[in-house]
Amino acid sequence: MPEVTFSSFILSLNTSALFHMGELPHPETGQRLVDRELAKHTIDTLMLLADKTKGNLSHDENELLTRILYELKMRFVKLT
After folding, report:
1. Angle subtended at Cα 68 by Cα 36 and Cα 12, rounded to the nearest 5 degrees
2. Which of the 8 DSSP states describes residue 58?
3. Closest CA to 13 of 31, 40, 32
4. Could you say which DSSP state residue 34 is in?
């Protein structure tokens, strides 16, 4: 298993949100399912992390989190 870093954790949550928004197919069935509630929960989790880690992230970590949150929010708005 690769080392767990803040960036890899954020990327994992990003993948989860994309999956719940139907952007990524289920690995076994190939189906794309949309679960707005779980997608929103994952985005809210990322927003909580951004708030709680403000001022404690490296420049690259902050950029990654900011960019991912922006992109996920824009995709989520298109779902509704």
Report:
1. 75
2. -
3. 40
4. B
First and final C-alpha spacing in the chain: 36
Contact 59, 33 (CB under 8 A): no
The pLDDT tens digits for 37-73 are 999 999 999 999 999 999 999 999 999 999 999 999 9
Sign of CA dihedral 43, 45, 46, 50: positive
User: How high is the pLDDT of residue 40?
Assistant: 98
**Helix ranges, 3-80 (H):** 6-20, 36-52, 59-79
43, 73 in Cβ contact below 8 A?
Answer: yes
Answer yes or no: are the C-beta atoms of 22 and 33 closer than 8 Å. yes
Cβ within 8 Å of residue 76, ≥6 positions away: 17, 21, 36, 39, 40, 43
